[in-house]
Amino acid sequence: MHVCERDFGFDKVCYLQSMAYTSLQNKVAIVTxxxxxxxxxxxxxxxxxxxxxxxxxxxxxxxxxxAETITAQGGKAAPVHVDISSEEQVEAMVxxxxxxxxxxxxxxxxxxxxxxxxxxxxxxxxxxxSVWDSFMAVNLRGPMLCCKHAIPRMLESGGGSIINMSSTxxxxxxxxxxxxxxxxxxxxxxxxxxxxxxxxDGIRANSICPGPVxxxxxxxxxxxxxxxxxxxxxxxxxxxxPSDIAALVAFLASSESRYINGQIISADGGMLxxxxxxxxxxxxxxxx
Length: 288
Ligand SMILES: NC(=O)c1ccc[n+]([C@@H]2O[C@H](COP(=O)([O-])OP(=O)(O)OC[C@H]3O[C@@H](n4cnc5c(N)ncnc54)[C@H](O)[C@@H]3O)[C@@H](O)[C@H]2O)c1
Fold this sequence. Notes:
Blueprint: E1 2-7, E2 12-17, E3 28-32, H1 37-48, E4 52-57, H2 60-72, E5 76-81, H3 87-101, E6 106-109, H4 129-156, E7 160-165, H5 178-198, E8 203-210, H6 216-221, H7 224-233, H8 242-253, E9 264-267, H9 278-284
Parallel strand pairs: 3-4, 3-6, 4-5, 6-7, 7-8, 8-9
Antiparallel strand pairs: 1-2
Helix pairs in contact: 1-2, 1-8, 3-4, 4-5
The structure holds nicotinamide-adenine-dinucleotide (NAD).
Nicotinamide-adenine-dinucleotide binds next to helix 1, helix 4 and helix 6.
């Protein structure tokens, strides 16, 4: 059992997470963007399941801190510097996983530039091409490069599971944040391609589309007003935590999910399943 306790201002959450997946024992994972937020929670969760984790991030200090937390808890982890938009650095990251841990079974393509306030990611007529290019370089080319270099090593290791981080932004449109949405739709195409091309060889690929999740990155890019609107439209009594997504990654990495391949899976508290007018109707009182 592992106690999770976090407080980002939405809800203070404290609950027990049970470890479950014996098939993950002694496996090797790369988690990109593992220095903070969902990637950090996932690296920690996988390590608790017995996975040796490459904690990859562009920010060395945070990657080091995540790896130290894991090793202090008795897990196996190593920090690795990577900018996922650089093919050379991605290749070196994968090589380091093999060098340190002797194989590769799990790739969690989590790192991304987040969109929102201050990101420059606007509507189509106000889109700076440099902003578009930088979102595509990190959020779309990055996961492609990681798949390109990880898959041959995963095949040599006997197969495995790729979990690509998408977003509800890939499933429905907004007035702004176009580059982020298009890149995440591309990630879903990457998932379906990998599942189709390598499923028979024992490599599964799935996408996770989170709704709002309380991370440092998310809180920095949304205004309090926008947060409140998102909270109203999530159908659960709470807003998602990084550990909620980490639990799904652990399941998709394990053999318990062995017949799930090429899927685009939402973890959004039901945010996208209702009429868009629901929150306003609830505010004025629902009619019988
Ligand atoms: N938090 C949410 O509400 C939410 C919702 C939907 C999807 N997502 C997705 O979940 C993933 C994680 O989001 P988060 O909220 O934890 O974000 P975060 O900002 O807390 O973490 C992202 C991490 O990625 C790293 N990173 C950024 N660019 C990189 C690069 N070029 N190379 C290597 N590392 C890089 C950052 O340093 C950071 O540690 C992202 O793919 C994001 O798009 C998040």
